[in-house]
Amino acid sequence: MKSRFTGILTLFLAFMIQFSFAQEKTITGTVTSADDGLPLPGASVMVEGTTKGTQTDLDGKYSITANQGENLVFSFLGMANQVITVGASNVVDVKLSPDNTMIQEIKIEGGYRQISRPLSASSVVSVVSKEIENRPNPNFLTTLQGQVAGANISAFSGQPGTNKIDVIIRGQGSLSASTDPLYVIDGVPLNQAFFRNLNPNEIESVSILKDAAATAIYGNRGSNGVIVITTKKGRFDESFSVNYSSSFGFTNFRGDNLNLPSSYEHLLLQKKGFDEGVGALAGSLAITGTAFPTNNLADYPTGFAINLDPNNLEAYDVNTDWEDVFFRTGVHSSHDMSFTSGSRNLRNYTSLGYFDQEGITPTTGFKRFTVRSNFSGKSTNDRFAYGLNIFGAYSKRNQLEQETRGDINNNVLQNPLNGYVNSPRYVSPSLYQNGQQLFNDYGGAALNLTPLMLLD
Question: Full-prediction pTM beyond 0.70?
């Protein structure tokens, strides 16, 4: 009985082994390109879920063993993977198509060519749109600070919309000539003054050319480096979409630790200087009780704009904090809307932008409105391409006079950043009405009129 059972089991196992071998078979075929039909040597053919695989030869041919029902995965660099299930046929030919979803890093070296990073021998730094957009900077150059190796970007003014920004790429190349790089926006050379009217949210990418390759393309204009800017465009075969973004924020004066005296402390110091013979500290108001002589007797019968009791300085109730008068909390806001659409042969990107920034000084601010439409298309056979870029901008800027007159940086009568420190707290802002009144009532400019001159 035992012998019969053993024999039956042996026959069953042999049948199962023969059945398994009958399921595994050799699959052959050719892997070619769907675009031009040429063979793809070195294409990978793998049995999905296993380590079994092979590569195509110089003619694109392959041979691999697999079971019926298993999946073969065909792959090639730059091509989309294709999965084929093994059926009854022993021949499987495959055509691979280019993978349009693979994103290759492209650097614009300027001029008329583009090149991928692995093929480039020049020194180029690229900054993409995600690192630029949605930042509350009127000038995108300030956004590049700290993001570009080898580029020194320094802003010399914090006023809204300023163009006082130095960009030096790989060190200063001249002692007397200009060190400014060349700026190219969508193939058009422009100067830095244009950037206050350029909406950073419209920028697709920025490439900074830092070596002799820039000179090779642009000539001596690129000797200080080149900053190449590409604005956004739509994509082919893309459905219509609308994007809206906005931002809102505040800017405050960072303050100081100068520990300035109050009006009472100031007057007390003046009186102490007079009593102890220190003329540099003595002041007429603390001694005579009068200051700011005026001919306006109708408003000031005593002939002085300020009157107090020098024997009771504590009773004087004017204590003006000029930091609160000359500075404020600046509010900035932006609103951007873009429309993108694309068909097989046409694409379009249209954007509208509004930016408004208040400076911390009440007389400063910057407003900008921009509109852009980038339209492009191509022929069905991809041999002809065309495009049209339309851009318009309107901006209005109010600035401190010292922005363009560096000689008055330390002039306390014209620069509130320095003047508020020297403005005595015992002077009331109500003494100022307008420039003509200031001239008629108190005469020409003088250091004791610092706060009133700054209010003009």
Answer: no
